[in-house]
Amino acid sequence: MEILIFSDAHGRREGMQEAIARQVGRVDAIFFLGDGLRDAYALDHPSLYAVRGNCDWFSEENAPTEIVMSLEGHTILATHGHAYGVKSGRGALIAHAAEVGADIVLFGHTHQPLSEEIPAGSVIGQRTLTRPMYLFNPGSIGTGGRSFGTLLLCRDTVLLAHGEL
Known about the structure:
35% strand
């Protein structure tokens, strides 16, 4: 599966449209991690997974605050991140991800691109990771560096990368 990851459009959907147009192949799914739900829904992609950010509370669009789902044998946690205080650290988010059994954690809110791997065998709370946990923040598609993420996902493969417009 080829997946695009966006966050923090803040009313500027052109960046998402440009990133989609740049893709060589078909985009199987899009994750939108909050703060610009109206922009994400305007993409009209058949496999759009969107979560509500802290700036989306008065939006007419309805979305959950987080999604936990399985794709290609992996458990993905998608959230905006504000509820876990990610601007002050990732500890609470990592603990929650371990609790729900996620091995891929997608979040936004900080507007800063991040890619981090927690190795298999690490102990988080009462859980020992049986495979690596990947933390990924695409940065902001709407402000600053106008960055986004890509995820190539197969049963035995997780490839995460940042792109910039």
